[in-house]
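Researcher: Let's do a round of design. I'm pasting the structure tokens now; please hold your answer until I've finished.
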């Protein structure tokens, strides 16, 4: 099918036209747009473009070789354990016939400036953590408390399918993806264990020491993920000796994706000149 569509919108003699670009996700991801928009502006202004690095095709070929390497296959047991379902009876059970994209909903939450500043700056600084650590701790605690409210008393982890940009150049010597467009996203399951005892829940929601202990535990669990989690996708999809074992396991009921901090131009576009 078509990977890219371009449309010029003529808004009349008194207003500048618009260039509308629609690209298939196979061709671009969120990081790709941050490369393409400045390049389009530079090309419009007649400025030279920087040279490209490793092509997407080269990267895909390198990953296929990496999938069969001893270092990747050594991670098989780790990823099988991480991917095995360990849900509580209170967890929702997804029905492929009913739970479709067409029936999905969206919840938007805006944080006030003080909370945002704490989330992005001083809390990570105090705990030597990253924003993902904080968000995943909060999510794990929320699910664990939701389970508790429905009578669950088990210790099953909150397994999350963690999505990342996938541009882990250190896995392939000499790779340079700083100016490469394409869909590089990788996903891997992470079992989160906040491990909150019943007497500690009030302290958690008050932001007390129990919340800090949960953050430290989740941070350590995330740091224990080998090689940024890329091995899971390699073993599940690209290694013929292991993919059938992974195909038999269901995907986690929860997913997480943090796109990072970025700003866009007013109206969601980019100026062509200036």
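Researcher: That's everything. Go ahead.
Model: Designed sequence:
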């Amino acid at each position: 099918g078509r990977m890219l569509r371009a449309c010029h919108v003529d808004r009349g003699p008194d207003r500048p036209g618009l260039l509308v670009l629609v690209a298939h996700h196979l061709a671009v991801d969120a990081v790709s747009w941050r490369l393409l928009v400045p390049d389009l502006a530079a090309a419009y202004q007649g400025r030279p473009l920087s040279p490209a690095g490793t092509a997407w095709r080269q990267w895909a070929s390198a990953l296929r070789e990496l999938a069969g390497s001893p270092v990747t296959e050594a991670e098989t047991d780790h990823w099988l354990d991480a991917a095995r379902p360990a849900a509580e009876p209170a967890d929702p059970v997804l029905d492929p016939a009913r739970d479709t994209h067409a029936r999905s909903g969206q919840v938007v939450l805006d944080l006030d400036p003080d909370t945002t500043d704490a989330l992005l700056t001083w809390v990570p600084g105090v705990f030597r953590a990253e924003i993902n650590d904080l968000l995943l701790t909060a999510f794990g605690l929320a699910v664990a408390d939701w389970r508790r409210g429905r009578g669950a008393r088990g210790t099953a982890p909150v397994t999350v399918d963690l999505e990342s940009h996938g541009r882990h150049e250190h896995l392939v010597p000499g790779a340079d993806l700083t100016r490469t467009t394409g869909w590089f996203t990788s996903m891997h399951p992470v079992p989160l264990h906040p491990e909150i005892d019943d007497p500690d829940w009030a302290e958690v929601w008050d932001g007390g020491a129990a919340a800090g202990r949960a953050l430290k535990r989740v941070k350590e669990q995330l740091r224990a993920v080998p090689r940024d989690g890329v091995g899971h996708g390699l073993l599940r999809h690209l290694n013929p000796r292991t993919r059938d074992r992974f195909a038999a396991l269901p995907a986690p009921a929860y997913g997480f994706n943090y796109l990072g901090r970025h700003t866009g131009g007013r109206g969601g576009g980019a100026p062509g000149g200036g």
